[in-house]
Sequence to fold (155 residues):
Amino acid sequence: MKFFAPPLLLCLIGLPAFADDNIANCEIVVQKEIKWEKEAETGAEKIPLIAEFLPAFDFIFSVFDDEPGHLTMVDGRPIKALMCTRTHLVPTRFDELLIKTGIPFYVSPNFDAPDSALMAISKVDDVYVHDYLGPPLSAEDADILTARLEALNDH
Fold:
């Protein structure tokens, strides 16, 4: 009896790589006002804010659609960050357009775990920079990260 891999099984072999870059694992961050308060002593007004995490579908699609520009506000509130949960933290070519929006880009396997690795890419003084916390990147990943940052900064 011969054994052959059914086509569906062959498709599943590449699934982990696809799932790692799935946009369903991305959220945008906006700040939401909790309430207005007035300090009794000084009369100064305070606006307590809380971060609100929303699905990133609309933002991501606005970056890749045929329309000029991209989504920058949600309900009148500016998008403060794009956060994606992934095991592989080096930005992909797909991520380059998202990063070029200038909205800070964060990637982590688990944002809720204090010991989880974190890659942050943001634009500072018109230059894209990164911060990385976690175990050392492999030589290959470090080279890819350097190349991606050079491509982003090539005006």
User: Anything to note?
Assistant: The longest helix spans residues 139-153. Residues 7-19 have pLDDT under 50 and may be disordered. The chain is about 30% helix and 30% strand. Helices lie at 7-13, 15-20, 57-64, 93-99, 139-153.
